[in-house]
Amino acid sequence: MGELHVLDHPLIQHKLSVIRDKNTSVKEFREIISEIASLMCYESTRDITTEEVEIETPVGVAKARKVSGKKMAVVPILRAGLGMVEGILKLVPGAKVGHIGLYRDPDTLEPVEYYCKMPKDIAEREVYILDPMLATGGSATAAISFLKNYGCLHIKLMCIIGAPEGVNRVRTDYPDVDVFLAALDDHLDDHGYIVPGLGDAGDRIFGTK
Predict the structure, then answer these.
(1) pLDDT digits (tens, 9 = 90+) for 57-97
(2) How far apart are the C-alpha atoms of 13 and 17, rounded to whole Å?
(3) Nearest to 182 by CA among 43, 3, 1
(4) I want to staple 118 with a disulfide (CB 3.0 to 4.6 A). Which of 10, 98, 151, 153 is the partner?
(5) Does residue 200 have an active-site annotation?
(6) 50 is catalytic
(7) How many CB atoms lie within 10 A of CB 48?
């Protein structure tokens, strides 16, 4: 069974306070989204499998541990999820990157797919779906469904801010998926925005509003 993890590391929480601020510039917002993704990646990979190896140092032989087992893939939900990719690749440069393009129908708030491209070996990898905001959960559950159709068995969802409505939908539809958040906010407003949230993450990352 998957679990909900709200990451309360002080550095994550400090950086979260900066991106919530409506006066934060596009440049700083973009940089800090990437930094938070790195910190969340560090926390969310604690269960990754390692194996013991021997390393020859300049003064002797040391027993050390290297990552083994399933390799990693990150799948940002376009477009806002792109802002989290670089931060994770800094820590795991060997990860492959897939892309899912979804937009939210303004009337139904449900996701509509317009693009999907995955690495050929995606089913053999531990997959991290990336999206800064987990609002209604529609995009997240659609992305999980697509990846399960590709044969993926090990999926984690990484979002910076979540609403209870989105968390509940993912946990109900896909209870096997671990969900990682930096904050669980109060509720969604009538337009499907997270309150207090940080506004539209995509617009703030790319400066389109």
Answers:
(1) 999 999 999 887 678 999 999 989 999 999 999 999 889 99
(2) 6
(3) 43
(4) 98
(5) yes
(6) no
(7) 13
Is 108 labeled as catalytic in the residue annotation? Answer: yes
* Catalytic member of 79, 104, 171, 173: 104
pLDDT at 209 over 80: no
b/e sequence 57-69, b meaning 16+ C-beta within 10 Å: eeeeeeeeeeeee
Return the C-alpha torsion angle 34, 209, 129, 39, nearest 10: 20
- 91 in Cβ contact with 41 (< 8 Å): yes
Percent of the chain whose predicted confidence (pLDDT) is above 70: 99
Q: Which of 45, 171, 173, 203 is catalytic?
A: 203
* pLDDT tens for each residue of 96-147: 999 999 877 778 767 788 888 999 999 999 999 999 999 999 899 999 999 9
Active-site residue (options: 49, 108, 172, 208): 108
Interior angle at CA 13, CA 9 and CA 18, nearest 5: 150
65 noted as active-site residue: no
